[in-house]
Amino acid sequence: MTDPRLEIIGHRLSGVKRIIAVSSGKGGVGKSVVATTLALALKEGGFQVGLLDLDFTSPSTHVILGVEGLYPEEEYGIKPPQAYGMSYMSITYYALDKPAPLRGADVSDAIIEMMAITRWEQLDFLIIDMPPGMGDATLDMVRLVKEIGFIVVSTPSRLAYETVRKQLILLSRLRVPVLGVIENMVMNPSSFIRGQVEKEGASYLGEIGYDGSLEDALGDIEKLKATKFYKAISEISESLG
Fold this sequence. Notes:
The protein is α/β, with parallel strands linked by helices and 241 residues long. It has a single domain, classed as P-loop containing nucleotide triphosphate hydrolases (Rossmann fold, 3-Layer(aba) Sandwich), CATH 3.40.50.300. It is globular and about 50 Å long. The termini are far apart. The mean pLDDT is 91.
C-alpha cells in the first residue's frame, strides 16, 4: 500500500522555488555553519528563505542561530516559526535536543513525517542541513524531493575530500544536480581541491578561509554577520540567486 504521506510532500513543497541540500561526506567540516549562514545570506539578499535542520546525528543550527523558545504551531500541519525572518524547522523540536538513535526504516519514517507535516508555503529557497555521509537520509531526500540540488562541503584535507569524491560519484549516478563544492577552513590556499572537484565534472563554488572569530560568533547573529566567513558565504550565495 502506498504511504499517503508521500503525496502530501509534493503539496507541501509546491510553493518552494529552489531546494538546496547542504551535505558532506563526513562530519566536522563545518556543514551546518555553511547551511545556516547560507540561509541567512540569502535572506539578507532579499529572498524568502526556509531553513530545515535534518541532521539526525547532531542538529546544531539552533545553536548557531542562538534561538530559544521558538516552537512550531499546529495548524493544518506544522507551521515553522520565524527566526530572523526565515521559516525555521529542526529535528530538535521532536528529539528535544537529545540524541535521536534512529536506524534504517526509522530514519526514513522520520524524514517522511517531517516533510509531510511541515507547511513551508511560499519560499524562494529552502536550505536543508543534511546529516553527514551517504546513508538513508541522503537517499530518502533524493527519492522524496524531485527538484532537490546539493551543495557539498569539504575541507582542504585529502581524507575529507575522499568522502566528498564518493558522494559526488553517487549523486552523479543518481542523476541528482550538484550545484557545487565549497572548500571550508582553508589555511594554506591550494589548487588541489578545486582540481579534484573539476576532475569529477562538478563546480567549485569557492574557498572559505579559516576564521578564528567564527567560534565566538556562534549564537550571535550580528557577530556572525561581521565575520570573514559570512562575507565569503555571501559572495557564494550571489551565484545561487
